[in-house]
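Entry:
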Amino acid sequence: MTGPAGELPDYAERVLAVVESIPPGRVMTYGDVAEWLEEGGPRQVGRVMSLYGGAVPWWRVVRADGTPPPCHEGRALVHYREEDTPLRGGPGGTAGRTAPAVRVDMRRARWDGDAGGSADGSADGAGIRGRPARRR
């Protein structure tokens, strides 16, 4: 993921565009983002997020088990509460209700690219950037 200084690699731009499309209160896994792009994998998405994800809603991309990025659990929990993201164990998180125990309820919060129509809120049935929403 290299390029001229100040220029964002194409793959990184596409990853960040997907992340920006995730509605408040919903999440995608690193693997979901890669699957949506039909390129790379969870590790490549994670690398993009670690290098360039600070300016997008990074807390909406989680591990497959619903945990937020390591070492960012406390900051993520603040965002989850603000956005009313469904959490395992209720609004405070899981056992002990501490930041390290934060886990998103994937059954309720996982987003497939369809925001009740499309990612831009229109009712045309298309998902992110006009692609059909994926069904799980």
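Residues 117-126 have pLDDT under 50 and may be disordered.
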